[in-house]
Design brief:
CATH architecture: Beta Barrel
Order of helices and strands: HHEEEEEEHEEHEEHHE
Largest sheet: 8 strands, antiparallel, barrel
Shape: globular
Number of domains: 1
CATH topology: Lipocalin
Helix content: 10-25%
Number of strands: 11
Structural class: alpha+beta
Length: about 200
């Protein structure tokens, strides 16, 4: 699965693609001591399968290197049109897991029209689990919306959500509860089933 399809949750309102989306109202952490600088994350990344997609990851000055800028670039081979989406993100370590907490940078995405911006007027965070394995390779896993909602509905995890519109969900719980839920290893594996492998090319 392409990482671009994983982060579609962040800019689903930008594209015409229909998919199920889950974000959180609160960040995974509001404690700066949980934020991590990891130099292995910096650089230009490419899909291991779809090479027309690139991700430029760098740090934003003034935040001790712990706030990242992610530029997602996809060039269509058919139309030769390039789509670009810019995100900001914190890398957060919870127990032995690394997570990327991403938000859409509205001011840096001028192609958003007013109607689409409305979907992001309230804070929305999109969380991905990262695994740093082999050198210059990165495994990215996103939340499986169906599995997460099923676990909540069956009361197997203590989270609460709002259904903003069709297939668009917002988790309402605060940071401490989010961290506690993600720390439950078995449920963590169930929730993060969508995976992609990126390779560093620069």
């Amino acid at each position: 699965m392409k990482f671009l399809s994983l982060i579609i949750a962040v800019f689903v309102a930008i594209t015409a693609t229909s998919c199920k989306v889950v974000g959180t109202l609160y960040p995974l952490s509001q404690n700066s001591r949980d934020f991590v600088f990891k130099k292995e994350l910096i650089g230009k990344w490419q899909e291991s399968i779809e090479q027309s997609v690139h991700y430029l990851i760098d740090t934003i000055s003034g935040r001790e290197g712990k706030l990242y800028s992610i530029t997602c670039i996809e060039k269509s081979n058919e139309t030769n049109i390039t789509d670009t989406t810019i995100l900001s993100a914190f890398l957060i370590k919870v127990n032995d897991w690394y997570y990327l907490d991403c938000s859409l940078e509205i001011g840096s995405n001028p192609f958003l029209n007013k109607k689409k911006i409305n979907d992001f007027l309230h804070p929305r965070h999109f969380i991905f689990r990262l695994a740093f394995g082999e050198k210059d390779k990165l495994e990215v896993a996103s939340l499986d919306t169906d599995e997460l909602i099923r676990l909540i509905d069956e009361k197997k995890i203590s989270l609460h959500y709002a259904n903003l519109k069709k297939d668009d969900y917002l988790i309402l719980d605060k940071s401490e509860i989010l961290q506690k839920t993600l720390s439950e290893t078995k449920k963590n594996y169930l929730m993060f089933k969508n995976k992609s492998i990126l390779k560093k090319i620069l």
